[in-house]
Amino acid sequence: MANQLGRRYQCETCGTMVLCTKAGEGVVQCHEDEMPVQQPRKLPSSD
Question: Is the residue at 40 inside a domain?
Answer without folding.
Answer: no
